[in-house]
Every structure is written in structure tokens, then in C-alpha cells.
Amino acid sequence: MMEDIRNNLAKIGDLRVISKTSTEKYRETDLSIKEIAQELKVAFLLEGTVQRSGDKVKIHAQLIEAKTDDHLWSETYLSDLNDIFKIQSEIAQAIANELYTVITPEELSIIETAPTSDITAYDIFLRARDNHNKYWSDNMDIKSLDNAITLYHRALDNDSTFARAYTGLAMAYWEKHFWPNYFEPTLLDSVLVLVNKALSFDDRLDEAYFVRGRYYGQKPDSMNAAMNDMNMALELNPNYAEVYRYKSRVSAWAFEDYVEAIKNGQMAVNLDHGPQFPQSLTNLANFYAQSGFLEMGKEYYEKALLLDNDSIKYFQNMSLLYFFSKENLQGAYNYALSGYRLDSTNMGSVMYLLWYSSFLGMAEEANYCALKLIEIFNSTNARIPGIWHRIGYAFLLVNNPEQAEYYFNEQIEWSEKSIKLSRQFAQTYGAHYDLACVMAFKGETEKAIELLKELNKMTFIPKWWITQFKYEPFFENIREDERFQQIMKDLNAKYRKEHDRVLEWLNGQTLSLIHISEPTRPFTLSRMPSSA
């Protein structure tokens, strides 16, 4: 319930509201109000407790100014459970008034709109959402996801007009069916049906536009529609950190605009200091590194490491940085190996080890990693679309041509189907690159060159891809071809042009952009020390 109060505050454009996930670690903290505010760079904190007994609910909320530890506002509400949405709206409005914040008529209308008229449906929905969150926190435990799906359906059985339940169900279906149905022409169509259903009952539901935007992001020639929906989500909720994270990635890989990628990435960093905070920092590091600002990338990778202590991810990131900045394959391999030694079941570490060992011609190591990766795929049903030919090459290094041919054909199938269906793997030209690798290796030079010409339609090529072209073992047969060399020159020029554009933009910014910026308007943080 406190989360919904925070969500109401987030809809007010004149406030900057830190995400719920940013506050969870402070639920039982011994830190002072001032210390929490300093960590999260917020000006005000909202504390609250919720107690429920049967159909009665008691909510106590208080607003605290972090700098002085003064209680600016405090109120206790006693009401029937059926009035809970009204109370949540009243609390949000009281806090906004205390901060002298302007609430537009549209924002007020959204805040005052109850998500459902059925309190039982709402209670079931909250349990569905808890199971959905548990799916992610428990390393994608499928049982929790199935429980969430069952509960979302039960919520809808009680209220067939409950828009948020449709959106929750859409996301759960996405997570359950994406990879098993990757090559189905109807991929994610059920998601579109569900979010459109949600919007038919509530056309101001920010999360429905976010989910639909992600759906369009998977479809050919629909990126403008995707961004339109993302922007609509931000109009309804200017503090939607996940939308900024998504927009940052799309700006990079779809629109090849690294200035916008960095801008949106910085907004995600500012708004969400929860479990996704290190990932937001890593995204920002990637955007800087891929556009050629390697030291800035390293700085953000190190910030992420300090926050999540995820040495495995750090070693993986550093291996990439070593590869495409220093062109030091052995150094990259050593970093990936350090990550693998911490967790030999981590798919990313095994993938990077396979990649570097193949480039280095380390036959036994590559073969071991290929077998390990196949084992992980079989046990988790996970997939990496562009890894099959790397596995095949590893088998070839140990004189196992039959297995090599099998996985080369797997890569051909994945790439060709992705291109035909214009899956995201093809929209980013990864499918073209990997298929060109196999074609070049098999001596089908014309097909390889044509695929690389398609890739050359990109207006920007990331730094790591420039280095990969340079050392790619699959391209040895065509490396002296004048057409291949011209494509390399074109790609280098495109990389340099975007690098210079980002540099010009950065030179016009204040230093606060390069480091985590201070808020210019009040941030509000919801904290719930206890509940019953």
C-alpha cells in the first residue's frame, strides 16, 4: 500500500521520486534519516506503516526533511479497507501540498482514479506481484512465475476490468514464452492483446504503455511506435526509471544515437538506486565505452562493483574493455577466467571464455567451454542467438568436424530465421554478422560480403565490433578482399563520427553529467519500516 502512495507521487511531474526498489534495503536499517538521504541524494523522506485487521486498515505516514530531520507533516488514517485507494490519494496530495508542489488537473485525476473497485481482486493482485518479483529475485524460479500467472488470472476473475492485472499477466507471459516461441510468427502477440485490454479499461496506465512499447521494440519497423509508447509512459509517470533504462538501450542499438543513450541512461541512474542501480551504471559504462570513452566506462564499471559487489559481472565487463580498448586478447581471457573461477555455472563467464579462447586458438579450453555452455543451455533452457558458430569453431579446433558442422548449421538457422522474421537479433545486425562469419568460413565469399554490406547500412558501429572485425577468425578467408577492406574503412569512419559527436556534446555539459548528479528538485523516498 505504501508502494501505491509512492506511485501516486511519481505521477506528479514537479517531483522527483526515487523508485521503490531503491528503498528496500533500508526497511530494517540502523542508518539515520540524514545518512539514508545522503546515500540516495534525496531531500525528503516518506516513512509509513500499514496495519490491517480484517476489513479495517490503519496507515501512519510522515514526511521528514532530510537536512534538518524535521517532521514536516504527519497523519494517521483509520478506515475501511474499501476506502484504501481514497486514503492513498489523500496522502499523496497532502505531501505534495506540504512541498508546495503544483499538481495539474490531469495528474490529480490519475491519482484519484482507483485501480479496481474490488478489494479482493486488489489483494490477490498484490500476492501475484509478490510472486512475480520472487521469480526474478530467485534466479528466474519458474514455480514463482506460474504462481504469479495463476494469481493474476484469479484477480481478473474477481474484476475483469482490472487493468494492472492484465499488464502483470502480459509481463508474466512474456517471461514464460519468449525463448520457447522465439521463431513463432505470433511471438508475444498475447502480450499485445493483454496490454491493449488493459488500456481499454485504463488509457492512462503508465506500465501498460511501457510493456506495449517493449512489444513494439521486438517487431520489425516498429521502433518509432515503441518510443512513442515509452514517451507516453513518461508523460503519465515522469519518474519511471525502467522506461529511461529501456530508452537508453534503444537509443543505442536501434537509433544508434549515443548522446540520447547517455542522457536517458543518466536519468535511470538518478531515479533508481535499488537492485537495478548497478545495472544502470553498467549500461552507462557500456554507452561510454562503445562510443570510445573507455576510461569513463571503466569508472562506471567500478562504481557498479562497489555497489553490488558482483565481481563476476565486473570481470566480464573488464574483459570486454580489455579486448576492444587494449586489443589484448590474453588480458581479456584472464579477466573472463577470474569471473569463471568465482562461478563456473555463470553463462556469461563461460561464453566470454569460449569467445576469447577461440580467438586465441586455445583448442582444449575452447572445447571445454563449448561443452559447458551446451550443458547450461540444456539445464536452463536459456539461449544466446549468436553463440552457435563459436561452439562449432571450438569443436573444429579439436578435430570434431561433425559436431562443428552441426553447430554451424544451427547458427545458419538462427540467423536466417531471425532475419526473415526481423527479430531483434536481426534488427541489431547481429544475425547478419554471425551468418557472414559462417558463410566466409565455408568459402561462400559472395554471400558473406552481401551480409556485411547489409551490416554496413548501420550509421554507427560500436568500438568493440571494430576490434572484433579486426581479429575475427571466421574472416581470414576474406580479409584481403577489397570489398571487405572497404567495409572496414566505412565502419571505422562511422564509429569515429559518432565518437566525435558524443565528445562535442560532452564538452558542452557540466561535470555533473559525468558523475551521479545531484537532484535539482525535491526527491521523495518511501520507506516502510514495519507493517502488519
Secondary-structure blueprint of this entry?
Blueprint: H1 2-10, E1 16-17, H2 33-40, E2 44-53, E3 56-65, E4 70-80, H3 84-98, H4 105-112, H5 119-137, H6 142-158, H7 163-177, H8 189-201, H9 206-217, H10 223-236, H11 241-253, H12 258-271, H13 277-290, H14 294-308, H15 311-326, H16 329-342, H17 347-359, H18 363-380, H19 388-397, H20 401-421, H21 424-427, H22 430-441, H23 445-455, H24 463-471, H25 482-507, E5 523-527
Parallel strand pairs: 1-5, 2-5
Antiparallel strand pairs: 2-3, 3-4
Number of helices: 25
Number of strands: 5
Helix content: 55-70%
N-to-C terminal Cα separation, in Å? Answer: 11 Å
Strand content: 5-15%
> In sequence order, what are the helices and strands, one letter per element?
HEHEEEHHHHHHHHHHHHHHHHHHHHHHHE
Largest sheet: 5 strands, mixed
**Biggest β-sheet: strands ordered side by side in the sheet:** 1-5-2-3-4
Q: How confident overall, as mean pLDDT?
A: 85
Overall description:
The protein has 532 residues and is α/β, with parallel strands linked by helices. 64% of the residues lie in helices and 7% in strands. It starts with a helix and ends in a 5-residue tail after the last strand.
Key traits:
disordered C terminus; 25 helices; five-stranded mixed beta sheet; alpha/beta; 532 residues; 5 strands; globular
